[in-house]
Amino acid sequence: MNTVKLCIDTDPGIDDALALLLAFQLFDGRIVGITSVAGNQSVDKTTANAAKLLDLANQTIPLYRGAEGPLARTSIIAEEVHGITGIGKAVLPQSRRTIEKSPADEAIYEMACEYNGQFEIITLGPLTNIALSLMKHRDLAAKIKKITMMGGGSYAGNVTPYAEFNFFADAEAADIVFRSGIPIVMVGLDATHNATITKTEATDALNEESYTQFIALELFESLFENHLYHSVNTSYMHDPLAVAAHYDPSLVSLSDAHVSIVCEPNEHYGQSLVEFYHDSPNAKVALDCDLDRFRELLFSTLTSYHEH
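The chain above was modelled as a monomer; its predicted structure follows.
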C-alpha cells in the first residue's frame, strides 16, 4: 500500500475539475491538501471551484488559497476556454467550507515538513505556489519526493506557437521549479495531445442519474464546445492525464531530459526547451500515452461515483 502523502496544486478550470474528481477516487486517503492558484481563472474563482468540487465529492481535504498572480509577469487567465466561472457550463452550489488560514505556499512547506521525504505534489496549473515556497524555504526541495506536473511540451505550445499555458502564465516560477533539483515528471502537450476523449465516449460512459457523473458530463461538454478539431467533438485531457500518470506511470512513455524555461520577454517566453540527450537531466518527460488504458481508468473511476 502506498503511504506517500499528496498535495494537488490546481487552478480549476474545466479539465482541472475532471482531474480532481479522478484524483479524489484514485488517491483516497492520501491527499492531505489542495492548494489553489490563479491561472484558468482568478484565484478567488479557482479557490471557490476547488471548494465546490470537494463538496461534490464529499471530501474533507483542507483547502488553501494560493497566489493571486505570477511572480513577475502580468497576470493572464483563460476565460475564453473555461468560462466566466472557470468550470464552463457546470453549475455547483456555493460552498460553505472554511478555507485554511495558511497561504498555499506556506501550507506546502508545512506539509512537506510533516511528511518529510514521503510527500509528493501534482501540479495542474501555473507553478507560482511551488516557486514561492522554494524561494522562502531552501530546505523544501529535499523534502519533496516527486512533482508530477501538467505543463510544457517539447515541440510546440498551445497559447503561443512556443509556450504551453501553465508555463506561459508564470515562466519564472516554472524556471525556479526546474532548477530546484526536485524529481519531476513533466506531462506536457507531447502526451496530452494524444489523450483525447470524444463526446460519444463521454455520453456513453456517464450516467446522468448520478449527480457527480452528471456534473462530469457537463464539464466534458464544456470542453467539447471549446476544443473542436477535424470536425469531430473531441477534447484533450490535459490535467486528467497528469493525475493518471502520477497514479500509474506506465500509462505514459517517459524519457529523461533536461528542461529549461525561457524567461526572456520575447515571443519564446514560457517555452520549455527540452534536451533529451543531456548529461544532467532534471526531469522525466512524457512523450505519449496508452490511450486505451487511460480512457479505461478515467471512465471506470468517474463512473464509481454512484450517488443520486
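The radius of gyration is 18 Å.
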